[in-house]
Amino acid sequence: MTTDRSELADIDLLEDTWEQGVPDEQFRRLRAEAPVYWHPHPTAGGFWAVTRYDDVKAVSRDWRTYSTELGSTFIRDFDEAAMELVRMTLLNMDPPKHTRYRKLVSAGFTPRMIRGLFDGIEVAAREIVDRVADADGEVDFVDAVAVPLPLQIICDMIGVPAEDRAKVFDWSNRLVGGQDPDFSPSEEDQMVAQTEIYAYCDAIAADRRAHPRDDIMSTLVHAEVDGDRLGDTELNLFFVLLCVAGNETTRNLISHAMTALIEHPDARRELAANIDDDALWNTATEEFLRWNGSIHNFRRTATQPTRIRDTEIAQGDKVVIYYHSANRDESVFDAPDAFDIHRSPNDHVSFGGGGTHFCLGANLARLEIRTMLRELLRRFPNAEYAGEPRRFRSDFVNGIKSLPVHLSA
Ligand code: HEM
């Protein structure tokens, strides 16, 4: 059964749309008129677009009905051989397998571990701001401010030395940039990036087997699941997941937060005037996350016939949950289209709807976003666009490729 209504025939939530901007108006119509909407896809059949907050949460929390392991979290399809590899990444495992693997990396992300990173993150953020000062405040914000902090922190946590960070950055861009010609001109190039990052991971893993250190790679090479050590492919895929998840998402969130601060000067001035007010910075950080999350959607696949509201979903159907739409759901958030740094409660779903895959790096990301922007506004309370932001072409990552800004004291 589909809800393909002629008045909604111009709905398009694919990559070309996102390159132009966040389709707020389309989401508003979908939430009101067809909250479970059959969205055609030129190459991947079609999928149910789920756009209301309660439904996004319900799907996220019900892994028995909505699997990631059956068909991955991407809208496009993979052949069975590729699916075997895809299923070795945490996001694409269902419990009980997921539970066993998640335990392995969780140790690196406990609240205590994250608190331990606090000073290092602050020092790194100050150094980044110093470099902005050297450039007289005229920078591409993405390269100068949003990229370096998450890159440095995740590389340090995994165990990638400073001199190799640029390589990790390049691989990570090429791996998620398949739909954007600026990053990844061809599938072959993506394959090359994949081969290179796997070889690199193999080398680090070999080193940590012989010389364990205090990093996630050392934990992973010595960890056991059901009495077995992780294989090379499993290690490679963990490595890639952490590099991509740790970099792309937080970087884009910091860039989107900057655009929000440029476009809402009152909020920016208030934050700058209350730079040491932790409570205000905490609510502001949650609002940055709600306002423009880094991931448009994740896909699930129905394991059995089911129903969302009055729409029947067949076994095997793709169900795609749209986080941004849920975050603007007028039945949950007061004045959802107002950017409000005092918003409370603010139970957004930018880190997921609270199910088994809930973002492992949520507290790390919060700390990085808050610290980076706070250190920036401490020195540069004024900001304006120095050119047009350029958006990433992707049906999955809500990215900004470049953001020319002028920052001033
Ligand atoms: C603003 C930054 C971030 C956003 C918006 C974000 C968002 C998300 C979302 C939406 C999910 C899926 C949740 C679900 O399916 O219920 C997820 C999963 C995940 N995130 Fe993040 N994330 C961010 C930062 C990070 C960072 C810094 C890391 C650190 C390495 C990270 C690691 C992961 C991992 C490993 C998963 C998979 C968890 C699992 O399958 O069990 N994320 N993230």
Q: What's the arrangement of secondary structure elements?
A:
Elements lengths: L14 H6 L3 H10 L2 E5 L5 E5 L2 H9 L4 E2 L12 H7 L10 H10 L4 H6 L1 H17 L3 E3 H6 L1 H11 L6 H12 L10 H24 L5 H7 L1 E2 L2 E2 L2 H32 L1 H9 L4 H14 L5 E6 L3 E3 L2 E3 L4 E5 H5 L34 H18 L2 E4 L4 E2 L8 E3 L1 E5 L1
Parallel strand pairs: 2-10
Antiparallel strand pairs: 1-2, 3-7, 4-14, 5-6, 7-10, 8-9, 11-14, 12-13
Helix pairs in contact: 7-9, 7-17, 9-13, 10-11, 10-13, 11-12, 11-13, 13-17, 15-17
The structure holds protoporphyrin IX containing FE.
Structural class: alpha+beta
Instruction: Classify the helix fraction into a percent range.
Output: 40-55%
**CATH uppermost class:** Mainly Alpha
CATH topology: Cytochrome p450
Give the second-level CATH assignment, the architecture: Orthogonal Bundle
Small molecules in complex:
protoporphyrin IX containing FE
Q: Spans of 5+ residues with little confidence (pLDDT < 50)? A: none
Please provide the count of β strands.
Answer: 14
State the helix count.
17
Number of domains: 1
Shape: globular
Annotated CATH homologous superfamily = Cytochrome P450
Largest sheet: 5 strands, mixed
- Give the radius of gyration: 21 Å
What is the end-to-end distance? 58 Å
Overall pLDDT confidence: 94
Give the amount of beta strand, in percent.
Answer: 5-15%
State the strand order across the main sheet. 1-2-10-7-3
